Amino acid sequence: MSPPHKSAVFLERRAYQKRRMRDLARGVPVFGAVLWSIPLLWQQGDAGGQGTQNSAAVVYIFVVWIILIVLAALISRAVRSDREQPPDVKNG
Amino acid sequence: MAKRVLLIEDEPNIIEAISFILSRDGWTVHTHENGETAMTKVRAFPPDLIILDVMLPGRSGFDILRDLRGDDETAQTPVMMLTARGQSKDRELALRLGANHFMTKPFSNAEVRDNVRALMEA
Amino acid sequence: MVSFNILVAVALSYVALLFSVAFYAERKADQGRGAWLYSPIVYTLSLSIYCTAWTFYGAVGYAARSGLEFVTIYLGPTIVLVGWWWVLRRLVRIGRAQRITSIADLISSRFGKSKSLGVIVTILAVVAATPYIALQLQSVTLSFAVFAEAGGQPWGADKLNGGAIAVAIGLAIFTVFFGTRNLDANERHHGIVMAIAVEAVVKLFALLAVGAFVVWGIAGGPSQILAQIDASPISQWEQDGARWVGLIFVSGAAFICLPRMFQVLVVENVDERHLNIAGWAFPTYLMLMSLFVVPIAVVGLAILPEGANPDLFVLTVPLSQGRDGLAMFSFLGGFSSATSMVIVSTIALATMVSNHIVVPIWLRVQAGAGAKMSGDVRSVILLARRLSIGGILALGYLYFRVSGGGTALAAIGLVSFSGAVQVLPVLIGGVFWRGATRIGAAMGLITGFLVWGWTLFLPSFGAGAFISETVMAQGPFSIYWLRPTALFGIDGMDALVHGIVWSMLLNALMFFLGSVFSFPTPMERLQGAQFVNVFDYSTGSASRHTDAADAEDLLIMSQRIMGGTEAQAFFQAEAMSQGKSGYLPDVTSHFIERLERELAGSVGAATAHAMMGPLTDGHGMSVEDLIAVADEAAQILEYSNQLEAKSAEQEHTARALRTANEKLTVLSVQKDAFLSQISHELRTPMTSIRSFSEILRDGEMTPAEQERYAGIIHDETLRLTRLLDDLLDLSVLANGQVTLQDQSGDLKGLIDRAVSVAGGDTEGLRILRNPSSEALGVRTDLDRLGQVFINLITNARKYCDADAPQLRIKVGRVSGHYCIDFIDNGSGILAENQALIFEKFARVSDEQKAGSAGLGLAICREIMQRLGGQISYLPGQGGAAFRVVLPPAAILAIR
């Protein structure tokens, strides 16, 4: 099944990097989900006002949001959906 | 009164030969050369015996024989068939159709004369 | 104070603007000049229909009531979009490859084009979406009411209802107009997408404007806002963890599963690469949409009187500050949110209803009515869509009226979401797992639908509406563990989370078990393979929205079935007949029809129709599908071709044997006939000879008689000799053993000699000639050529039956060849005999005179063939006519 490689080393390296970029693209939502799950650990507010402040929560959530957007934007340049799918991920 | 023989045959030389042989034996010989009009001739001049060639212009001798046998007037008239093709199936066909005798050319004169005599006396 | 009439005027002119934008986009698209229509920006903006009036107005109210929980509605989609590589990319590729028209179509298609699954998903979608549409109607009418109240004319219930009706009718008109203008095979609506993109910009900027006003205009800057948050009733993080996770999950799933989202994400997608951009651009949009929600909420809570509806803060905060223009802008934003959602939602649902419910029923009803025309189906589909659009909006309005338009409606948003996501297990399972089957999918969907209905949808109408309070508290028939909010006896869960967890869990479980324990049909397996391995089957190359590309696909498909050369020739001819050059004709219904017929020649009519039918109907199987089927068909064809080739080979051999046998039989018959003829020809003269020689031997005759009979004998022996000579001659000629002489002479002399040998120009046969035309030098075997002439003249002498027989001998040139025609004035030869006369012993009639054995013309033909010329019968000359064509090499010069 292996395609013939001409000038192997250089191409191989690029293909490898491309593949890692795709891994990164897959990783972004996982990263986001984990970061946005952190509020689960926050102190619940109560009458005494000892809980996590919503002003800080807003900042946290939006900072994570911006990080995700920037990451996705950077990665979207590296991976192109219309390129051939590498054989090892064709089912997944 | 001399018995009448009708010879239906298209080869002029053969007509002449058979006419000569039979006339010399005392028969009255009439001849006819065309297959198509042969039946008309037979009806107009009912012969006592018919000598019929197989290959005739216009109509085959077998067809004429079939007609002869199908006609009440001529059903019993003796018919002697002649052929130059000499194939056994012709003989079989002729006999099946009701020919009284079948002769292959060339024949000897005596053969013709004897057969005609035999058929006439029968 | 802005007058209510001005507001109505502004709203109407805004609608007019949307109409013109949609018109303009459609026109550009029709002209093929709307490249900007296909930009990723438009695609991204069209996704904004996710943000409905519920989020535009409701998010602030949500925040005012429950703090940051509202943000989960945006976080879910963000995660899905930044993770586009996982699911969205696959869905979009499948949607394009399979020409999916809706989410119901995707599910139905994936599971072997199952009709029932399409129906289930459609019903589920309609049930889940109707309250949501009602919600949009409510928000628009409420926002109108806000302005009416501000203008000093508070709206009563009748006015609210009237407003809702007006909005519903207006939306129906717009949607029917642009949503069913054409029946594009790809179900793309450029006008609507463009109008939605404009609305997306309006609502974003409206919200940003209000937010900016609140932050900088009222609070005095970001730090003040944060301080104000700390001082507000929602200063503390009081988020229920289960709801936090559950809502992120539901909103993310709904982003894929909502019919309207599927419509813009997958169906309206013109280029897969747009996902690349949307993957980060739409999260940005969502982030901006939610950026000022909390500030607006806290400021609204701070400055507006107690009891003010927080759902309308976006309008009432600017109004309370006298910012009428801003409030108006904000109103347009909310109006945009509501209308864009309703329009797309209605289109998506109408497509599903018409494709999966109305049209199948119509086709079934029509099935007995004979052949269907494709144009017929088109008009039915369009009509079905229009009626469905009206019906869905009417349903939404009805729900609005029945539910009373109160706060109960506000809660329905999430319930609606959780209903839509019941499709998720089947959707994800279907595109990732080949083992998923139709049975499993149906079981999962129905289970999910029932559990959702029981635990979320019916209770959402309030206790006592559909489910009595007793049942709520004790379970149906006092079955305790079936209580709608506490299935299996587990109390204490948040009702929404409870419903989502159980419905999704049971849904997925039934789907999984059903799939594992059922066996898929071949069609399911084919489709399953194509969906799961979509990246192996398709390419994501440039957008395919022109007919030329479709023609190309058809060509590829046809080549596999018809073979390359034939398919190309057919396509080229079709293109030429349309006045185009190249190989790709426009895909007209006429062309499809002809192609179908052409294909029918290769794969049979039924298969061809099955292959082409979906194209003419405008939905269903995709071209890639057809290609897959074509591949299979080609393989089968190949195989049967091999079989056929083998049997053809045997057939060929058998036929050769039969032919040989027939030939032998014919030869045998010919041989018999020939021998019989020879026999006859030999015996006849022999008979005369024998008879007369016997007569001579017997004596007793006159000398004259004697002489005559001897003469007959002599003639007959000559005849015999001649016959034997001819036979020998013919045999030599036929076997090619003859040696030709190379002689030169002139034609006139040759004919002269032939005439004199054949008896001369006498009363019996007048010979008419034109000596000047005969002045021709010839070089060939003159003896043989003369023999032909003699034969022909002799024949004329023998057979010409005219009273005064004549034979004309004409020499002339016909198409470069010298011909000598022998034409007598007799009755000629019958047409049916003309082919026979050159055969051996051919007897045209039995009128052969003595001396003719019927070999003359056969010998003539053999001679002319040897000499390189030919002899033929020349019909239509008034008598028997023979043409001798001299070989070109034989001509020396004109003397």
What is the secondary structure topology, with strand pairs?
The complex is a heterotrimer of chains A (92), B (122) and C (895).
Chain A: H1 8-35, H2 54-78
Chain B: E1 4-8, H1 12-24, E2 28-32, H2 38-44, E3 49-53, H3 61-70, E4 79-83, H4 88-97, E5 101-104, H5 109-121
Parallel strand pairs in B: 1-2, 1-3, 3-4, 4-5
Helix pairs in contact in B: 1-5
Chain C: H1 4-30, H2 40-46, H3 53-56, H4 58-66, H5 72-82, H6 88-97, H7 103-110, H8 115-150, H9 157-179, H10 190-219, H11 222-231, H12 241-257, H13 259-267, H14 274-291, H15 293-303, H16 313-320, H17 324-367, H18 374-403, H19 407-410, H20 412-420, H21 424-432, H22 438-457, H23 469-474, E1 482-483, E2 486-487, H24 495-516, H25 522-532, H26 534-537, H27 547-562, H28 564-577, H29 589-603, H30 605-617, H31 623-698, H32 703-734, E3 743-746, H33 747-757, E4 766-769, E5 776-780, H34 782-799, E6 806-814, E7 817-824, H35 831-834, H36 856-867, E8 870-873, E9 881-885, E10 891-894
Helix pairs in contact in C: 1-10, 2-10, 2-14, 4-15, 5-12, 5-14, 7-8, 8-9, 8-17, 8-18, 8-20, 8-22, 9-17, 9-18, 10-14, 10-15, 10-17, 11-15, 12-13, 12-20, 12-24, 13-17, 15-16, 16-17, 17-18, 20-22, 22-24, 27-28, 27-31, 29-30, 31-32, 32-36, 33-34, 34-36
